[in-house]
Every structure is written in structure tokens, then in C-alpha cells.
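Board notes (copied after class):
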Amino acid sequence: MVESIYEKILFELKNFNFKRNSLSYEYLIEAIRLVIENRYVIKDFNNYVYKPIGEKFNVNQKNVLWCLNKLITLMYFNTDENIINLYFNTYKSVKPTTKAFIIGVARNIIIKNN
């Protein structure tokens, strides 16, 4: 059976402690999907990631970014730092930026599927 991109993203996000029933989590899934489907979007997250998500969910793109920032911050505080360090190949506790988190998860999914 072929896994959908959505299923692959959900599986990858299980590495982290997220509040999975929030709208912000849906924004995160959509952001990762956009990066997986077209790596060019990483050049301009505002126009190619946050704006389309805002249009899809009928919210302002600044609200999308704010929600994602809060979601990543909460994840950082609720996930074991060793898990984050191993996943992002860091050696000290550094909270990944929202953009770095999205790109990092997308990249890992792409690598696992090639």
C-alpha cells in the first residue's frame, strides 16, 4: 500500500510532542506538504507557504505564522531536547525556527522516500 504525503507527515511528526487537535497543527501539516511538493517555496515562505495556507483556511498569513511559531515553541518545551538534537543534528539545546523546523521535517521525509 502506498502511503499518502499526509500519512508520511503525520508519522514523522510523531517524533515530537505536539498538541495535535489544534488548527495550528493543521497549518504545520500543510506547510510541510507544500515544501515537500515544491522545494522552491523555501525561497519565500511568506508568499509560497503562509499565504496559501491563510487562503486555504480563510485567515491572514500573519496569523498562520504566529500560530506556527507558538506551536513550534510549545513543541520545543514539551519534547525531550535529546530528540530534537538528534533529529536536527545539533549538539546543544537550540530551538529550531519555524522555517527550519518545517524544512527539516520535509527534508527527512524526502530523504526517507528516495
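Comment from the instructor: The mean pLDDT is 93. The first helix runs from residue 5 to 13.
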